[in-house]
Write a structure and sequence with these properties.
CATH class of the domain at 187-315: Alpha Beta
Structural class: alpha/beta
Protein name: DNA-binding LacI/PurR family transcriptional regulator
Keywords: DNA-binding, Transcription, Transcription regulation
Order of helices and strands: EEEEHHHEHEHEHEEHEHEHEHEHEHEE
CATH superfamily of the domain at 187-315: Response regulator
InterPro entries: HTH_LacI, LacI/GalR-like_sensor, Lambda_DNA-bd_dom_sf, Peripla_BP_I
Organism: Paenibacillus eucommiae
Strand order of the largest sheet: 6-5-7-8-9-15
GO molecular function: DNA binding
C-alpha cells in the first residue's frame, strides 16, 4: 500500500514527498524519499498510465470519465504526487485517428514513460478534419511545447503548419511528403518478410487483407506482397487481395467462404482485422491454424487477449520510441540540423498460435 507523508511547506524550496513501499530515493531535509510517479499512481488505481497522464496533464476531450478523474486527483493528492513545472513539454499530436486505436495509444505510453524519466512532460493533442488546423495553429502559437511527435493520417497542411511554427517536430509513420524529420516503418519490407515467413511454412495460396490502396502504407504492403511472390516463383492470384475496413474482418471471412475463394494462409495488415477474421473462421467451423493460418501486422493488446494468441510480425516499439526521442532531442538542441529520414528495420515475429506449417520444411 501507499502511505503519504506530507511535510509542512515553510520553505518554497522544500520538496513534497511520499513514502512508497518503504523505498526512499529523493532527498528532503537530509532524508531520501521516493517521488511518486504517474505509473505508480496508475498501478495503485489499476488503470492505464495514459489515463493518469491525461488527468494530471489536464488534457481536454480525452474521454476520461469524471469518476476516474476524481480517483486520479484524489490518489495524486494523498500520495504526494507533485509535477515538475520546470520540465520541458513534448506534445504527442495524433492526426485524423481515434486515440482508442492501440497502435497510437501504446506508442504514447512508451513515449511518456521514457520522456518523464528524462525530465519531460508529455502533452496530448488530437486533431481531425479542417477545423483541426486552426486548433493546431492556436496551440503552436502559445509556444507550450518544446517539441512535437506527430503521427496518424497526415496531410501537407498539417506538415506545413508545423514547419511554419519553428517548433522542432518528428513525424512517425508513412507519409507522401518525406522532406522533414521522419521515423518510418519499411512497410514493403515487413510485408515481404511476412509472406516469406508463410511461404517457408509451406503456404502458397496466401491472401492479403489490406486497407485502402490510395494510402501509401497499403500500396507499400502490396508491393512487398507481390515481391515475395515473384522471388519465390509463385503466381499472384488477384482474388486473394481483398481491401477491408478495420471492423469488417468477421464479414470478410464469411465472404471468402461464400465466394469459395481458397487460401491456406492470410496476412492481415492490422491485428484487429486478424482478430475479426479469426472469429469469422471459428464460427464457420474452420480450424485456425489447422486449416487456415493467420499472420497479423502489429503488436497490440489483442495479440495475447485472443484465444488462440495471434501470430504477428511487427516493428519493435521500444526501438521506435528510442529513435523518435533521440531525433527530437537532437532537433531541440540544434534547430539548424538538416532533415533526416530514419527507416525502421527492427522487425520482430511473435509466433503466437495462429500460424501452422502445412508440410515439413527441410
Amino acid at each position: 500500500m501507499f502511505a503519504a507523508v506530507l511535510p509542512t511547506m515553510t520553505d518554497p524550496h522544500e520538496m513534497m514527498y511520499s513514502k512508497l513501499n518503504e523505498r526512499y530515493y529523493m532527498t528532503w531535509k537530509g532524508i531520501k524519499y521516493h517521488m511518486v510517479t504517474k505509473k505508480e499512481i496508475a498501478d495503485y488505481l489499476g488503470i492505464s498510465r495514459t489515463a493518469v497522464s491525461f488527468v494530471l496533464n489536464n488534457v481536454q476531450n480525452n474521454k476520461i470519465s469524471g469518476e476516474t478523474r476524481e480517483r486520479v486527483l484524489k490518489a495524486a493528492k494523498e500520495l504526494g504526487y507533485r509535477s515538475n513545472e520546470a520540465q520541458k513539454n513534448i506534445c504527442y499530436l495524433l492526426c485524423n485517428r481515434e486515440f482508442n486505436d492501440s497502435r497510437y495509444s501504446l506508442l504514447m505510453e512508451d513515449l511518456e514513460e521514457i520522456m518523464s524519466e528524462q525530465g519531460y512532460n508529455l502533452l496530448f493533442m488530437s486533431i481531425k478534419g479542417p477545423s483541426g488546423i486552426s486548433k493546431l495553429e492556436s496551440f503552436l502559437e502559445r509556444n507550450e511545447a518544446d517539441g512535437v511527435v506527430v503521427t496518424g493520417l497526415l496531410d501537407d497542411k498539417i506538415i506545413h503548419t508545423l514547419e511554419q511554427s519553428g517548433i522542432p517536430f518528428v513525424i512517425y509513420g508513412v507519409v507522401e511528403n518525406e522532406t522533414g524529420n521522419i521515423v518510418t516503418p519499411d512497410s514493403e519490407l515487413i510485408a515481404k518478410e511476412a509472406i516469406q515467413y508463410l511461404i517457408d511454412k509451406g503456404h502458397e495460396k496466401i491472401a492479403l487483407f489490406t486497407g485502402r490502396l490510395d494510402l501509401l502504407i497499403h500500396r507499400q504492403i502490396f508491393e512487398g506482397y507481390k515481391k515475395a511472390h515473384v522471388e519465390n516463383g509463385l503466381v499472384l492470384d488477384k482474388l486473394l487481395v481483398q481491401v477491408i475496413n478495420q471492423e469488417d474482418g468477421y464479414e470478410m471471412a464469411k465472404r471468402m467462404k461464400l465466394l469459395d475463394i481458397e487460401y491456406t494462409a492470410a496476412f492481415c495488415v492490422e491485428n484487429v482485422i486478424q482478430f475479426g477474421i479469426l472469429q469469422g473462421l471459428k464460427d464457420a467451423g474452420t480450424e485456425v491454424p489447422g486449416q487456415i493460418s493467420l499472420l497479423g501486422y502489429g503488436y497490440t493488446e489483442l495479440v495475447k487477449l485472443s484465444n488462440p494468441h495471434l501470430s504477428t510480425i511487427y516493428f519493435d516499439r521500444s526501438e521506435i520510441t528510442k529513435l523518435i526521442i533521440s531525433r527530437l532531442q537532437h532537433l531541440i538542441s540544434d534547430r539548424n540540423a538538416p532533415p533526416q529520414k530514419t527507416v525502421l528495420d527492427c522487425i520482430r515475429i511473435y509466433p503466437g498460435e495462429t500460424v501452422n506449417s502445412i508440410r515439413s520444411v527441410d
